[in-house]
């Protein structure tokens, strides 16, 4: 009875509850959340607070530094930097989240089908995954991007196509282990189809990998989008994205004389990615029951 | 003990390796390093003058043409041809050749001129001159120092074409089969020219080194070596210029501010001879009504863009030309008037034609300045109800889109592009004349305007030099009235040279010129 | 073991062929061919002239014919000529560029390994101290910063402002070769490259070492009275290094592709820049040939890592 009371007062003792407590005890993870939540609120709600729109040009206020009228200054066509940083946050996060969602779906499907289906299918699919991993990222990036052209949708496609193989491998490794367990064998014996196996057994048992992967991959996708925009692919101007705002830093004049045009998007990018990394790391430690030993 | 000896030995070796090249040689050769192929006039990695569409500034350091532009691009003067004469019927050009020697000591003769022209007309060699030299029926060589070109029809642009045709040595190239000539390694390993510098070596994709030619007919060059460094983009060249690693480079208009007022550098400003325009694709219904095209002209505040984005360094164009002698009186200036634009659009029924549906605006300009300009254009057109969406692509994608066998018109209903409009005004004919619709020419917008075509034909066929300006004024008037293009401006281009360079001549000529730069006089002082 | 290697090599060759086919298809899907890349849009030219050049380069042949022609050549060791350069063979170009890439990546990785492992050990040994916290934050910053931004800022600060290092290239043009010249060009990009990798290696090292330090045999060693220094170095380190070795192995595999952002910002003549230029100018033979070489290196590196893994840990059996 004393034990039951203790369990209830601590909010349950299941693995999920324990994971949550571990997460809550992780200082860095909490710091990450403390950074991300206000940033997300700001990014989503900025039109309510800010008067300037991100694409409003003003040829009379070019390259002005931070001032009362424009809190973070203006860029080469007089657009407000703060509005563009926040709009850029929307675009960069949108691209990152959607592309990660797509690659999680593809990765999970490929990995789990490979693990649960027959040996031949497994071998064939794994060779295909190996091929996708051997594709040098440089080439795939450049060639895929020149096929699709610049733009939000093409960028999403390019990033998701580059990220799924690693997840497929991880999911397959986890599920291969699971395949020989009694409950799966029993399930099969009762005539469960592939779909049932994936949905009822595969998914719940790989969700921790998926969550951790997704979080860390969002951070990577933001950096990848920035890199693509830097190379002239990715999200093209006049649409704002953190990546294409950083592209301005290529010119020594901007780098030197108008630092606000790249310092602010750069800082926003680094801080967001940092916070997401903290959270992702915290999630990974939280889901790993052995981390309490450390 | 052993460890300590080893450590000191390592330290000594490191110190010796690190010491910046101890001057074992008594006299280091004087060297000018520059980014000569940076910017739109350059052509990095191209060594074959017959296949060159740019990079002539560098090529003219070791190759020479028969005639060349002067250093203001105002007239054509002799180079390897010490003088030339055009017959009264314009069908015969006689060139008297200068006394020059190839870099391997052989004399330059009229046989080389005949060989060069024949090779340049032979399509199998990958030449880009075949069409432009098509009017030449034959080349005669009455003696070693005279070459006579006989034309089948008068060709006003022939001399301009010849300024870019570098003379090639027959004795060195005659045994190379035509179809391997284009990409032969001779060009980048051991080319032979007649210029003030001779080819020394090429480190692939990094730089080209030339050494002085002591037997040059213009005198021994002052500087021993000239090095052309390749840069991935203009920003890298500007960084190298600022850190003192190179003495000269083309710079973007945006970067000029860093160098102005700095005594260590000299900013060179010049006419780009490229007219920037918004091209209306005539195959889509959007622009059929001239009132719509006029509305576009009125909606864009070209003056504001030139003042704020180009910092005043561009001239507004109301037709394909901005040179004073080519502008007639009575041109419509299409002043900035968004109200008038809206009115014109309403009259033309813009809402039925397109309304606010997005219109792709295709361009190959990828510089920050260009994307700022397009953002301004987008905002200004949006104000009057024309919703354009700029789309910047790389050059191969752009060319593939506009020159496709069966083009998809919806990909480029509007383009932002530039075309060379000088120094010879006939240069824009290829983009506007109905006879130049691909595959014959570069009129990819499928412009079929009888007034414009007629004016161009009259100007091209004009044999009387004194009437030529008048004819081109007529072209200008036709362009201004019919608006095949929404002509924007002609911008200035810039180069920056170190203040230490003496007697250095450079102008931002289209395709690099070539122009009489007299590189044998260039000197790097202290 | 021999059987395993032979089988993997055979599969590897099959994968290379599949890879080349995939790249070929993707390339032809991309808009624009080498001739389109050649035309300067400001100086218009006629298409008839260009059609002749296309025919000469064999670009008007049906696609399967073009691919099989390339494949036949590749199997004989002839990867063709670069379309945009004069008389340079693809193999020659790749051979020229692999050296600088390996030099840059090698130096960067070497610095990263030394710094990363060292920092990881310190972080694990002085867990949760101020040093550990500082190192962890630095590591996170290293992973979270975009590579090209650090490159641009680094270039500006150290080259343009302070003039401590040259602004690009591998050697000073025209100057005689000297190791000092090479080192001065190499140091800045290599240092910037090592930041990201050192951060990752440090985190893996720290996590792995922490896990090992909690094992029973480490506790026994401590109980026996072994000095802490030797506990870490002699007993724990060897086992903790295993996951780090895997990380390093997979990094080396992709290293041959070159660090395209760094090479692009510093104009370092390596494989990354070669590929970027080749895609810009649609130089098909160079793209195909370079991809093949990089792919082969990745497959080889994976094979070697698996063998090394089996060699280090006797519990792992390569099947």
- Count of DSSP E strands of chain B? 19
Class inferred from helices and paired strands of chain C: mainly alpha
User: Cα-atom Rg of chain C, whole angstroms?
Assistant: 24 Å
Q: Assembly state here?
A: heterotrimer
Please tally the helical runs of chain C, counting DSSP H or I stretches of 4 or more residues: 13
Mind explaining what this structure looks like?
The complex is a heterotrimer of chains A (294), B (526) and C (319). Chain A has helices at residues 2-9, 15-25, 27-49, 81-116, 119-134, 137-148, 152-179, 182-189, 194-230, 242-246, 252-257, 260-287. Chain A has 294 residues and is mainly α. In chain A, helix 3 packs across helix 12 (260-287) and helix 4 (81-116) runs parallel beside helix 7. Chain A is globular, with a radius of gyration of 23 Å. Mean pLDDT of chain A is 81; it is low at 1-9. Chain B is of the alpha+beta class. In chain B, 30% of the residues lie in helices and 21% in strands. Chain B has helices at 2-18, 56-62, 110-121, 158-163, 170-173, 178-181, 186-189, 234-242, 256-259, 290-299, 302-308, 338-348, 350-353, 368-384, 395-402, 429-432, 450-461, 465-482; strands at 31-35, 67-69, 76-78, 81-86, 92-97, 136-143, 146-151, 197-203, 207-212, 225-229, 248-251, 265-280, 314-316, 359-363, 388-392, 414-420, 485-498, 501-502, 523-524. The longest helix of chain B has 18 residues, at 465-482. Chain C is mainly α and 319 residues long. Chain C has 13 helices and no strands. Classes of the chains: A mainly alpha (294), B alpha+beta (526), C mainly alpha (319). Chains B and C meet through helix 7, strand 10, helix 8, helix 15 and strand 16 of B and helix 2, helix 3, helix 7, helix 8 and helix 12 of C.
């Amino acid at each position: 009875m004393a034990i039951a009371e203790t369990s209830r007062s601590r909010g349950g003792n299941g693995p999920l509850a324990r994971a949550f407590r571990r997460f809550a005890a992780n200082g860095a993870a909490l710091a990450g959340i403390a950074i991300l939540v206000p940033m997300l609120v700001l990014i989503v709600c900025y039109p309510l607070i800010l008067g300037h729109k991100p694409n409003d040009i003003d040829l009379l206020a070019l390259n002005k530094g931070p001032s009362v009228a424009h809190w973070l200054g203006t860029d080469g066509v007089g657009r407000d930097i703060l509005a563009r940083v926040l709009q850029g946050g929307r675009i960069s996060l949108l691209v990152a989240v959607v592309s990660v969602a797509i690659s999680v779906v593809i990765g999970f499907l490929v990995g789990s089908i490979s693990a649960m289906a027959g040996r031949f299918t497994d071998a064939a699919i794994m060779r295909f995954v190996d091929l996708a991993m051997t594709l040098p990222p440089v080439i795939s990036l450049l060639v895929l991007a020149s096929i699709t052209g610049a733009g939000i949708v093409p960028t999403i496609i390019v990033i998701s196509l580059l990220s799924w193989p690693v997840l497929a491998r991880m999911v397959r490794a986890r599920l291969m282990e699971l395949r020989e367990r009694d409950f799966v064998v029993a399930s099969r014996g009762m005539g469960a189809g592939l779909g049932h196996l994936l949905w009822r057994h595969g998914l719940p048992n790989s969700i921790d990998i998926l969550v951790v992967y997704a979080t860390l991959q969002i951070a990577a996708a933001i950096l990848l989008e920035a890199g693509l925009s830097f190379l002239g692919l990715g999200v093209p101007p006049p649409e704002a994205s953190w990546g294409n705002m950083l592209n301005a830093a290529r010119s020594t004049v901007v780098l030197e004389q108008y630092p606000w045009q790249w310092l602010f998007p750069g800082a926003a990018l680094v801080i967001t990615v940092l916070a997401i990394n903290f959270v992702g790391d915290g999630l990974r430690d939280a889901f790993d029951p052995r981390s309490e030993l450390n | 003990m052993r460890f300590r000896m080893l450590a000191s030995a390592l330290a000594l070796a490191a110190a010796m390796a690190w010491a910046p090249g101890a001057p074992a040689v008594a006299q280091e050769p004087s060297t000018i390093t520059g980014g000569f192929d940076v910017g739109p006039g350059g052509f990095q990695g191209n060594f074959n003058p017959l296949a060159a569409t740019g990079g002539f500034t560098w090529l003219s350091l070791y190759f020479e043409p028969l005639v060349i532009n002067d250093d203001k691009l105002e007239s054509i003067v002799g180079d390897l041809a010490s003088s030339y004469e055009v017959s009264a019927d314009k069908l015969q050009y006689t060139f008297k050749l200068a006394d020059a020697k190839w870099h391997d000591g052989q004399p330059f003769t009229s046989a080389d001129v005949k060989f060069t022209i024949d090779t340049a007309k032979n399509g199998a060699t990958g030449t880009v001159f075949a069409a432009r030299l098509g009017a030449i029926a034959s080349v005669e060589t009455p003696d070693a120092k005279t070459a006579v070109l006989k034309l089948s029809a008068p060709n006003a642009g022939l001399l301009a074409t010849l300024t870019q045709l570098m003379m090639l040595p027959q004795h060195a190239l005659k045994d190379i089969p035509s179809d391997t000539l284009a990409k032969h390694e001779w060009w980048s390993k051991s080319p032979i020219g007649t210029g003030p510098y001779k080819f020394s070596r090429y480190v692939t994709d990094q730089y080209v080194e030339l050494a002085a030619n002591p037997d040059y007919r213009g005198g021994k060059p002052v500087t021993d070596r000239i090095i052309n460094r390749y840069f991935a983009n203009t920003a890298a060249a500007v960084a190298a210029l600022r850190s003192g690693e190179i003495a000269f480079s083309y710079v973007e208009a945006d970067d000029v501010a860093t160098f102005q007022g700095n005594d260590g550098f000299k900013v060179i400003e010049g006419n780009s001879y490229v007219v920037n325009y918004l091209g209306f694709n005539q195959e889509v219904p959007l622009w059929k009504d001239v009132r719509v095209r006029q509305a576009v002209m009125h909606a864009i505040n070209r003056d504001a863009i030139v003042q704020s984005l180009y910092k005043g360094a561009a001239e507004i164009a109301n037709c394909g030309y901005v040179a004073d002698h080519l502008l007639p009186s009575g041109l419509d200036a299409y002043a900035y008037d968004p109200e008038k634009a809206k009115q014109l659009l309403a009259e033309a029924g813009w809402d039925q034609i397109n309304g606010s549906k997005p219109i792709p605006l295709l361009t190959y300009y990828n510089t920050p300045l260009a994307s700022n300009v397009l953002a301004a254009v987008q905002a200004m057109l949006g104000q009057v109800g024309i919703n354009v969406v700029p789309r910047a692509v790389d050059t191969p994608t752009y060319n593939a889109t506009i020159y496709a066998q069966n083009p998809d018109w919806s990909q480029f209903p509007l383009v932002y592009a530039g075309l060379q409009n000088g120094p010879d005004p006939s240069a824009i004919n290829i983009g506007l004349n109905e006879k130049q619709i691909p595959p014959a020419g570069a009129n990819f917008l499928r412009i079929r305007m009888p007034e414009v075509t007629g004016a161009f034909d009259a100007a091209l066929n004009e044999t009387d030099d004194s009437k030529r300006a008048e004819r081109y004024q007529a072209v200008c008037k036709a362009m201004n009235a019919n608006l095949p293009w929404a002509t924007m401006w002609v911008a200035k281009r810039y180069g920056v040279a170190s203040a230490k360079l003496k007697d250095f001549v450079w102008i931002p000529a289209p395709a690099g010129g070539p122009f009489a730069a007299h590189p044998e006089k260039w000197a790097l002082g202290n | 073991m021999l059987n395993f290697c032979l089988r993997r090599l055979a599969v590897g060759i099959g994968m290379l062929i599949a890879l080349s086919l995939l790249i070929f298809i993707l390339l032809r899907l991309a808009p624009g061919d080498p001739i389109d890349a050649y035309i300067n849009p400001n100086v218009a030219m006629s298409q008839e002239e260009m059609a002749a050049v296309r025919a000469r380069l064999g670009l008007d042949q049906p696609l399967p014919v073009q691919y099989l022609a390339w494949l036949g050549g590749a199997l004989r060791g002839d990867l063709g000529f670069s379309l945009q350069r004069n008389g340079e063979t693809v193999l020659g170009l790749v051979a020229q560029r692999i050296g600088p890439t390996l030099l840059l990546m090698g130096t960067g990785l070497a610095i990263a390994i030394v710094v990363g492992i060292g920092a990881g050990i310190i972080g694990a040994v002085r867990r949760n101290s101020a040093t550990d916290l500082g190192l962890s934050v630095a590591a996170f910053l290293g992973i979270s910063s975009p590579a090209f931004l650090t490159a641009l800022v680094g270039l500006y600060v150290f080259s343009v402002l302070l003039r401590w290092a040259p602004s690009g290239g591998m050697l000073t043009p025209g100057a005689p070769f000297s190791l000092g010249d090479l080192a001065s060009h190499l140091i800045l990009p290599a240092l910037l490259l090592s930041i990201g990798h050192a951060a990752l290696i440090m985190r893996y090292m720290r996590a792995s070492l922490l896990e090992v330090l909690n094992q029973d045999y480490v506790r026994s060693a401590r109980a026996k009275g072994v000095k802490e220094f030797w506990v870490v170095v002699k007993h724990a380190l060897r086992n903790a290094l295993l996951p780090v070795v895997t990380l390093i192995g997979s990094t080396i595999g992709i290293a041959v592709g070159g660090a395209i952002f760094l090479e692009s910002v510093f104009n370092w003549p390596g494989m990354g820049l070669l590929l970027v230029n080749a895609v810009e100018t649609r130089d098909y033979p160079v793209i195909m040939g370079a991809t093949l070489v990089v792919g082969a290196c990745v497959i080889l590196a994976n094979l070697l890592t698996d063998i090394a893994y089996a060699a280090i840990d006797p519990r792992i059996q390569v099947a």
